[in-house]
Amino acid sequence: xxxxxxxxxxxxxxxxxxxxxxxxxxxxxxxxxxxxxxxxxxxxxxxxxxxxxxxxxxxxxxxxxxxxxxxxxxxxxxxxxxxxxxxxxxxxxxxxxxxxxxxxxxxxxxxxxxxxxxxxxxxxxxxxxxxx
Length: 132
Known about the structure:
Number of strands: 8
Helix content: 10-25%
Structural class: alpha+beta
C-alpha cells in the first residue's frame, strides 16, 4: 500500500490519524472527503454554499486525492456518501448525475447525526486502477 508524499492534501490536513488515500494493489481507496479547503494554517475549513457547495468540493477533493495515485473519477466503482440531512438526497442525485455519466459507480447513501468539522456531507470512493 502506498501514498506519495503530499498526496491527498486537497482539502487540507486530515482531521484525524489517517491517510486521505491508500493504494492496495489495483485498488485506490479514499478516506471520507468533506467539502473543505485548507485555511492559511493548512487546517481544513468548510466551503460556503451549504450542502451543495460542500458536496461539489468533496467530489473535487476526492478527484484530487485519486489523481495523486494515478486514478480519476472515471475509475471509481463504489462510493459511500454520508448525509447529515436525508432531505438533501435529491440534491445528491442531481449533482451525482452531473458528475458521472452512465455507467455511474455503485453508491450507498447513509444518514448520520453529524460529521467532522460540522460538514453536511462526506464522500468515500473506491477506484479500480490496474497497475500496468
